[in-house]
Backbone:
């Protein structure tokens, strides 16, 4: 018998009788919790006062979109397109990409689909691109940096996205790893070129497609007030924002203890990003793992996050947790937490505050 505990991230081979019994009870409790969550399926996402939030899903393929819809996600907050480029021998063509983006747009008609442009590099290698080995790949030639240096590859994706947005107008383009305005402007310039080419070729596309950015670098956070007026939306990528704020490699178990969203520097960063978006009236979401973290929810509600994007499996639980907070409770909890100075104190405080829910 092998027990796999996905909550704790551990496995137990040939458990003793008492371990088996404990896990059977844990499994039953987990199933019961899932049954309780069923009442949130297909419902809008409301906090305890009835304020409406958007609850979207993160996906990596067109098939995942079906899982997201089945999980009653209200849209797609992050489509990681790099998976389309992986596990194959050559770049996907414009037609191949168009077909995938269109399939997701069709299956989510009437709902937003935020598609992130190629986020290659870092921990994601694509062998046929012949990327050079780098000493610090997370600080290297990845994501928007790679795309701006390879307009031949980037423009194919932009054209496919523009075209796929034509039928329902529900596709949004999201740029990863932005550190400054020059990158946003350069990407928009390439988008404008793609539009002009499609016009000349008489091919239909979404002329008003929205362009937003992942806010996931320390630079983008500090500059969020400068970036906000030039983009249509923000989505906070906490997976990277934590590593770039705390200087902790997100994939290195040796420093795993230091990788935490509860660090006051990360929380202040998130608050600032949301404030910058609010100041110019653009929507702000979060598509990093922290969006599904029960301890983070009161803070995100209090800061004014508009949209939570989580894995399909976390949709119902996140909707239930949002429902358990009134605005006043969330604001009070966030105010207390933001008074504290260390990640450990903040986490301990939030565990108590959220444990009462
Ligand atoms: C993030 O950085 O938070 C994010 C959502 O993107 P990824 O995990 O793909 O880097
Ligand atoms: Mg990221």
Residues:
């Amino acid at each position: 018998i092998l027990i796999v505990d996905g909550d704790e991230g551990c496995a137990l081979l040939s458990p003793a009788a008492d371990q088996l019994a404990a896990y059977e009870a844990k499994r039953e409790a987990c199933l019961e919790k899932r049954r309780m969550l069923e009442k949130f399926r297909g419902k809008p996402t409301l906090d305890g006062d009835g304020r409406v939030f958007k609850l979207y899903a993160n996906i990596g393929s067109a098939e995942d979109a079906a899982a997201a819809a089945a999980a009653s996600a209200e849209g797609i907050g992050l489509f990681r397109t790099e998976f389309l480029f992986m596990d194959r021998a050559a770049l996907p063509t414009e037609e191949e990409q168009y077909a995938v983006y269109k399939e997701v747009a069709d299956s989510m008609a009437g709902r937003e689909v935020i598609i992130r442009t190629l986020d290659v590099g870092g921990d994601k290698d694509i062998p046929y691109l012949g990327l050079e080995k780098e000493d610090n790949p997370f600080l290297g030639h990845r994501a928007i940096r790679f795309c701006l240096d390879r307009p031949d590859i980037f423009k194919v994706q932009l054209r496919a996205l523009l075209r796929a947005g034509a039928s329902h107008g529900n596709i949004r383009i999201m740029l990863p790893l932005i550190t400054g305005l020059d990158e946003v402007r350069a990407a928009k310039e390439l988008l404008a070129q793609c539009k002009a080419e499609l016009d000349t070729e008489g091919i239909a596309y979404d002329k008003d497609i929205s362009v937003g950015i992942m806010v996931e670098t320390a630079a983008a956070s500090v500059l969020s007030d400068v970036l906000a007026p030039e983009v249509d939306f923000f989505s906070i990528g906490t997976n990277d924002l934590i590593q770039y704020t705390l200087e902790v490699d997100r994939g290195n178990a040796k420093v795993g203890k230091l990788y935490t969203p509860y660090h006051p520097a990360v929380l202040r960063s998130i608050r600032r990003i949301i404030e910058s978006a609010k100041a110019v009236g653009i929507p702000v979401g979060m598509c990093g793992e922290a969006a599904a973290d029960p301890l983070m929810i009161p803070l995100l509600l209090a800061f004014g996050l508009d949209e939570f994007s989580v894995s399909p499996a976390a949709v119902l639980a996140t909707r239930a947790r949002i429902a358990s907070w009134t605005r006043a409770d969330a604001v009070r909890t966030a105010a207390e937490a933001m008074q504290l100075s260390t990640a450990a104190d903040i986490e301990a405080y939030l565990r108590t505050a959220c444990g009462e829910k």
Summary: The pocket of magnesium ion (ligand 2) is lined by residues 176, 216, 237, 239-240 (CB under 6 Å). The CA atoms of residues 15 and 21 lie 9 Å apart. The mean pLDDT is 96. The radius of gyration is 21 Å.
